[in-house]
Specification:
This protein is an all-alpha fold. It is built from 17 helices and no strands.
Length: 404
């Protein structure tokens, strides 16, 4: 029996999915690969842990602002062009960062890289919302988030494995080269927008769109969940490397880097998010992700390496499940100007990463790992309370029959 030929729309959807997977992979490998390098940067430049975390925060802070600007710019210049420019320029800046001689030179390059990285995440959710049928958005968003998780995992694991034989510069250089190759694949695969219509209106149009989204009760709560959940996740991940590098574990850099293999659980959680939503509804799925994060954080307090690894795996699974549900919900809930709504969600996401991840360094310095876990658990608890209020803001069941 002859197999049914795939339709042009199926082929187009597959190209979109693969291209945006590559965009997520490139963006997040470039952004997060410095995380396992923080202890080595602290040693190389004689820094305190909170100061070494600037290698990450220097990129995430401008990224938060750049996402707002890029989301607005994409409404007039187009989605694909902006995403491609973002990916290519960020990869080239990352390669330059591997060569700078001074600490503050590295921070400056990472700052510029954060600005460059803003294009892809700001536009990807809006592109999916415009180009795919409504019933396919949840699954496609899950696969895009899976690409971000895969990039975050391989960027961290690769950097951790390469830092001892090649140093932190060699590790960054390899990740930059991979990001450049992913950018080429993205540019070749992603179809031009079929449903995008340029919107012109200047600053007033963008301000009005942002104001409308912030005043929407459902979207405002989703933005808050994004801020708190991401802050908790980054705070835990930033300092678990310091925790495991010190006694009683005293793990070497490759072993600490291999911890990030648990990101595979984030890939899996993101990929099945659409099915969870169909079965449990958006609100239950969101709360399930946050509860999983909290359980994992608590488990890392058990003074045994297998428990710490299992706890980090649960944190990763819960976070990426939460992120896939919340980000897809924003695209569905926004009434018009979807790129602006996506940009606000990601603005909250990266402000949480920058501000709360940096504050976590002072908690670690003063109270050690137990203090870091308590801090991260408090953020997850606040996110869970914010999610609970979505029931009243959701307006019941959405038009696909999913619970809120």
């Amino acid at each position: 029996m002859q197999a049914k030929a795939s339709s042009p729309s199926d082929s187009r959807s597959a190209r979109i999915t693969v291209a945006l997977f590559l965009a997520g992979f490139s963006t997040f490998s470039l952004l997060w690969c410095v995380q396992p390098l923080l202890p080595h940067l602290a040693e190389a430049f004689v820094l305190e842990p909170a100061t070494s975390a600037l290698a990450l925060s220097a990129a995430t802070a401008p990224l938060a602002v750049a996402i707002l600007a890029m989301g607005a710019l994409s409404e007039s210049v187009g989605r694909k062009r902006l995403m491609a420019l973002s990916l290519f320029s960020a990869a080239l800046l990352h390669l330059a960062g591997a060569l700078v001689p001074s600490w503050w030179g590295l921070v400056a390059v990472r700052f510029l890289e954060g600005i460059a990285l803003g294009g892809a995440p700001a536009v990807a959710m809006a592109y999916l919302a415009e180009e795919l049928p409504l019933e396919h958005i949840g699954g496609a968003m899950g696969r895009y988030i899976a690409g971000t998780a895969m990039g975050g995992m391989l960027g961290r694991v690769g950097a951790g494995a390469l830092v001892e034989p090649w140093g932190w510069r060699g590790a960054m250089g390899v990740i930059g080269a991979l990001g450049l190759m992913a950018a080429v694949g993205f540019a070749l695969l992603l179809p031009p927008s079929a449903h995008f219509r340029p919107r012109r209106g200047g600053r007033r149009l963008h301000l009005a769109a942002w104001r409308r989204h912030v005043r929407d009760p459902k979207l405002a709560r989703l933005f808050l969940v994004s801020f708190l959940a991401m802050g908790s996740f980054v705070s835990a991940y930033n300092y678990v490397g310091f925790y495991l590098s010190a006694p009683p574990y005293a793990l070497s850099a490759p072993w600490v880097g291999s911890l990030f293999l648990v990101y595979i659980f984030g890939v899996l959680a993101s990929s099945v998010a659409g099915r969870l939503i169909a079965r449990w509804g958006r609100l239950r799925s969101l709360m399930m992700g946050l509860a999983t994060m909290g359980s994992g954080l608590a488990l890392t307090l058990v003074p045994a390496l297998p428990a710490v690894v299992a706890g980090v795996a649960l944190v990763t699974m819960g976070f990426f499940g939460t992120h896939a549900v919340a980000s897809g919900w924003v695209g569905q809930a926004a009434r018009g100007a979807k790129a602006h709504a996506s940009a606000l969600y990601l603005f909250a996401y990266y402000v949480g990463a920058s501000a709360l991840g940096w504050l976590g360094g002072f908690v670690w310095a003063g109270q050690g790992w137990s203090g870091s876990v308590t801090f991260a658990l408090g953020l997850v608890g606040a996110a869970f309370l914010a999610a609970l209020t979505l029931r009243g803001a959701s307006g019941g069941r959405d038009r696909r029959g999913f619970g809120a």
